[in-house]
Amino acid sequence: MTAHTVEYIRYRIPEQQSAEFLAAYTRAAAQLAAAEQCIDYELSRCEEDFEHFVLRITWTSTEDHIEGFRKSELFSAFLAEIRPYVGHIEEMRHYKPTTVRGTGGSVPTLYAWAGGAEAFARLTEVFYDKVIEDDVLAPVFAGLAPEHAAHVALWLGEVFGGPAAYSETQGGHGHMVAKHLGKGITEAQRRRWVNLLQDAADEAGLPTDAEFRSAFVAYAEWGTRLAVYFSGPDAKPPAEQPVPKWTWGAAPPFRG
Fold this sequence. Notes:
Largest sheet: 4 strands, antiparallel
Order of helices and strands: EHEEHHEHHHHHHH
């Protein structure tokens, strides 16, 4: 949930130098790719005015960039490639992301692709019917509240891009973490949870395409491993954080 630092470097490169500029950054990019402080980077060119370029670099933090990368041998090699163009820089600043962010409608959310609130309600109903009959998981969920399945449906819906109903009615990420404190969940129980959730997804009629299921299972693996940690004796509850938002990741929806 860390808010990383985004550095923007804006260039104005004369048209006759643009090919050499792009070639230099292609070589320099190898240093960014090797830097542990660099999360990702992208060089874009303006469509309306070909002389304008913007380099976006996401750093783990401003301090990591300045005290880490810039004092490393990688930066020396990086600068050697792009030095001829330093005088063409019009802006070079670090920016922190704000809470104003989101995605457009060109790619549906996982929530919408799955079928919305009704799909997740079916999923959790089928899932917890299995859980209470399962020898491995039943002890963890002894005394399960009648509304538990509905609450988890709200959680999953929000995680996969639906409305913030869990945060608004149950208390957000901290509330979910608190549910696991002291539970002592084992690896065998975690694995059974993931397997039963996949079985429930089949029975509840959730999409079976590879792209959706890979994202769905990725969240189940990530979330259950955190649950094991927070249920353990050495767990430290995190600072208040928003509910995680899960997206398609490497494989967007396949539309033929």
